[in-house]
Design goal:
By secondary structure, the protein is of the alpha/beta class. The protein has a single domain, classed as 2-Layer Sandwich (Alpha-Beta Plaits). The chain has 3 helices and 7 strands. The strands form 2 sheets. It has a 5-stranded mixed β-sheet with strand order 1-4-6-5-7, sandwiched between helices. A two-stranded antiparallel ribbon has the order 2-3. The longest helix has 14 residues.
């Protein structure tokens, strides 16, 4: 788990990790990103934001960087393309969450 102060940095780092892992001989990544408040306690972070990110990562396929629409809208990065994945049921979340896949590219949204 990594913690970033803003969504753009999180997505950029996630894409770099996802693209670089195989070349470094590491297992493929399955990344879920969520923005929002967290609780700091005993050197760790907790809360709904952490839980949602974990549930999103559980749905990610090898090499995926997935996030919610709300987090996607916070990203200001011309080099990121977004693909609509669609609504997903996440354990512990009452309503479906719309997910998007980030890829390196050029700030386009496709479905």
């Amino acid at each position: 788990m990594f913690l970033f102060r803003e969504a753009t940095a999180a997505v950029r780092a996630a894409l770099e990790m996802s693209e670089g892992a195989p070349a470094a001989g590491l297992p493929t990544t399955h990344i879920g990103i969520q923005s929002g408040p967290v609780v700091f306690q005993d050197g760790d972070v907790y809360g709904r934001t952490v839980n949602v990110a974990s549930r999103i990562a559980d749905l990610a396929e090898a090499g995926d960087v997935l996030t919610t629409e709300g987090t996607m809208r916070q990203v200001d990065a011309a080099e990121v393309d977004w693909t609509l994945v669609g609504p997903a049921e996440l354990q512990g979340v009452a309503t479906p969450v719309t997910l998007y896949r980030a890829t390196g590219g050029g700030s386009r949204l496709s479905s």
